[in-house]
């Protein structure tokens, strides 16, 4: 059993500015959290805040321990609400996209 | 006596006879009227039937006949059996060739020519064209999205096109708002767009709503239309438009764009009563909470590439055409939701709400993602909805407060600020340093000679590190020189000055009030106004 899970993470809608202005990231996260439970998307969000975010304005990504309002989380091209939200357990090579909603027109 | 009695009886009989005959005459007149109406309808139907030479499926005939009876703009409805409002005598008295042709065919000859290229596709066909002609579409926002959307819908022959916007045309709109023109700068956007659209297709009925949308106005205006396009540029209007669409039972095609990206969602489709899980999700189902106000960037702040917003507006027109030309669901009349219905509507074909994302510089550029269905606790479209028609029209909902506002910054004491004029009078002998906190791209457009570019990073510590590294700020506080900080409009410069003062306690850091906008207005009129 591998101890990490390879994932493709992408940030769009301006969120990439918080992550070194880079949209796509290939990352590996531990396959279980500190309590030994399988890593889920909630854990991934925390992991991104601790390891990948470069901008100090973390509140532009996370508010009240969850992804801030106005950010859509997509798990393999589906709204995470269809997949169990932050409880969704990460699978190898999952593609997780964080989209900030746009408002211009 | 007998003869007198006999004459009385005769009078009595005659009176009864007259009464009975008059009653019969009334009935006969009524029957005649009904027969005439039936004959008139049959005559109209015969023309239509003749037009198709009897080869049209019966279910189409009913629908097309329904369309023809509608009060649509243009000549068709009036010429073609319009409830006797235009008597046959008027039409048939002096029939011209054109009259005869218009009675034989459901569209005018000009319309076959104009719309032929889309009508010959099975997706549209004659019935699709008639549905477009019968449709009323409201476009809220006549900017980068609304202009191309309106152009394609007018071009396609949508019967009634409503345009709503309270803004006037500015020069900085013209690179993307294709319905406006240099000559119409300063005019109301709705008027400018109608002028453009009339030149494109004069047979459309255009309705201008020259104001911004308010909660009080939304419902009575939306009720006049079949479908709404959200082409606005702020979360406030996006929530309001979605709420009003749910409450009036209108499908909503919503799009947005910023910089090089765009997003498109079809909401409340199919439109169903609040609480009906078979209805499409609304904006609140997808985004129950608005984003923090400071995370919302406008096109003026973030920038926008013309074709990016254009692509999204064109896609809105496309989705609108797809919705309008689809065969109406059998339940309820046409589009609108039947608010009198007590039974829940039967499930139509399963709806698959999606969001289309466009990113000009990514590969692939387009990506479609699955969205959730209606939210069981949605504030407007669920069974537990708290937002109602009444709460909207009474004006008790404050969308601005709901979405939050960013107030103009004013964080510095007067001692830490200088006017642009004041700065222009300072000696240029190296005794002071100008720090320009705009990003590199803007700095490259125009900058003052000798200034140091330290882009504001959004964070005091990281910015100060950059400022010290680039020599803009001395590492150990006072080095005997004054620092002046400038940006585009005078917001970021305040934050940067505050960061510098907090760290190095420097009373010698000042901000140029109003940034380069003030510089242009007070000192250098030739400074680029981008």
Automatic annotation (TrEMBL), chain A:
The modification 1-thioglycine is found at residue 105. InterPro entries: Beta-grasp_dom_sf, Mopterin_synth/thiamin_S_b, Urm1. Pathway: tRNA modification; 5-methoxycarbonylmethyl-2-thiouridine-tRNA biosynthesis. Keywords: Cytoplasm, Isopeptide bond, tRNA processing, Ubl conjugation pathway. It comes from the Eukaryota. GO terms for cellular component: cytosol. Belongs to the URM1 family. This is Ubiquitin-related modifier 1. It comes from Friedmanniomyces simplex. The lineage of its organism: Eukaryota, Fungi, Dikarya, Ascomycota, Pezizomycotina. The gene is URM1.
UniProtKB/TrEMBL annotation, chain B:
Its EC number is 2.7.7.80, 2.8.1.11. Gene3D superfamilies: NAD(P)-binding Rossmann-like Domain (3.40.50.720), Rhodanese-like domain (3.40.250.10). One of its GO terms (cellular component) is cytosol. InterPro entries: MOCS3/Uba4 (IPR028885), Rhodanese-like_dom (IPR001763), Rhodanese-like_dom_sf (IPR036873), ThiF/MoeB/HesA (IPR045886), ThiF_NAD_FAD-bd (IPR000594), Ubiquitin-activating_enz (IPR035985). It comes from the Eukaryota. Residues 11-45 form a coiled coil. GO terms for molecular function: ATP binding; metal ion binding; molybdopterin-synthase adenylyltransferase activity; molybdopterin-synthase sulfurtransferase activity; thiosulfate-cyanide sulfurtransferase activity; URM1 activating enzyme activity. One of its GO terms (biological process) is Mo-molybdopterin cofactor biosynthetic process. Binds 1 zinc ion per subunit. It is found in: Cytoplasm, Cytosol. Residues 433-528 form the Rhodanese domain. Zn(2+) binds at residues 282, 285, 378, 381. The keyword Disulfide bond does not apply. The keyword Cell inner membrane does not apply. This is Adenylyltransferase and sulfurtransferase uba4.
